[in-house]
Amino acid sequence: MANEFSITSSFKLSNGNDSFTRTVSFNADQTAVGGPSPGVLSIGTSHEAVAPTDLTNKGWALFKNLDDTNFVEVGVDVAATFYPLIKLLPGEQVQVRLSPSVSLYAKADTAAVRLDAQIFEA
Prior knowledge:
mainly beta, four-stranded antiparallel sheet, single chain
């Protein structure tokens, strides 16, 4: 099979004299069936693993901050140090293709948040 994912993103900025608009749409393959996983997680203020189950190679992921007040960061752990790569303000979401073997971690701002983490097999 081919083109199992259909992905569309739109960006629009209008701020004074600055403006930018871009819409991208494309299809992507999934080499094996799997996901979404792990689902909605409670993320505390110390970084913790975002570990999907039963996925051999991570592929497309969708992360959404379900909190109304606090932000959450998603990143990696290197020698017990958390390095945030993605910051999601309340209600924000992002879609991204992951490196297949990456180990993800998340950390909330000042109080625990609910993070919807939908990760699919590559």
